[in-house]
Amino acid sequence: MDIATVAGLLMAFCMMAGSLVVMGMEGKGSVNYASFIDPPAIMMVIGGGIGVGLVGFPLRNVLGLPKVLMKVFFHKPENLNHLIEQLVGLSEVARRDGLLALESKAAQIEDPFVALGIQMAVDGTRPEVIQEVMRTEISSMSTRHREQKRILELIGRCGPAFGMIATLLGLVLMLGNLSDPDSIGPSMAVALIGTLYGALMANLVCIPFTEKLALRSHEEALAKEIVLRGIMAIQSGDNPRTVQQKLNTYLPPKLRPGAQEAA
Question: What is the SS3 string spanning 205-241?
Fold first, then answer.
């Protein structure tokens, strides 16, 4: 689980609840948390956001949104050091026993992208073809991620607008009951809840989630780029030490092997 995502959301909600308590202590109004729960406004903002997603994107993309959102909370980042070690190990086998010796290793590799590259290298596929196939895989993955991200971006952009619509609907109902002055204040408060929901959905959920999905996509693309470079180095018969040096350049200096000892 991504602790940062959970902690960030909890902190934001706790700060809002805390600010209400402080305002109550300063005599700016009694705190009634139940007054911040308004099912019609929730329906308007969340339902409207999903509706906008359906208008802007194919149904299959919108149906895949829950799975995409799970990536924000549950994502195991690729261990790049382990990935590089795996590729260097494969280069040692290829250097010592020849490329064909990797055929038996391909079946044991869990990462399908690494297995694909190794299998093509073992099959004697030309380097430019391997690069084209693997590069296309990376490009297709990035395209899928961009489409998923754009749905959240669209919902985030429209969230405040649907919040305003919910507020306007509430105001219309309130103006219809002006004969009862006592109901104007509470009705106004309920009407404004829609704007609050819209702002929260856009600024606390959609925009931050979009940024985190972009980061996840970048991490996955970087891991696949390392695999691509590793496979090309293995096929060209590079020394394992050279393979490691090439792949380590993708890591931040502090994450490279021996960085702690050097520090």
Answer: HHHHHHHHHHHHHHHHHHHHHHHHHHHHHHHCCCCHH
CA separation for the pair 227, 224 (Å, rounded): 5
Tell me, yes or no, if the pTM score tops 0.70.
yes
Q: Take residue 198 and report the two structure tokens written for it.
A: 């819209």
- Going by C-alpha positions, the residue among 105, 114, 127, 117 that lies closest to residue 84 is 114
200 torsion bin: left (phi>0), alpha (psi -120 to 50), beta (else): alpha
Residue ranges in the chain modelled with pLDDT below 70: 28-29, 183, 185-187, 190, 258-263
**pLDDT at res. 44:** 85
- H helices present in the chain, as ranges: 3-25, 39-42, 48-56, 59-63, 65-73, 80-97, 103-106, 112-122, 127-175, 184-200, 207-235, 240-248, 259-262
Taking each helix axis from N to C end, the angle separating 80-97 and 112-122, rounded to the nearest 10 degrees, works out to 20
Sign for the CA dihedral angle at 199, 201, 207, 208 comes to: positive
Round to whole Å and give the CA distance between 150 and 168: 27
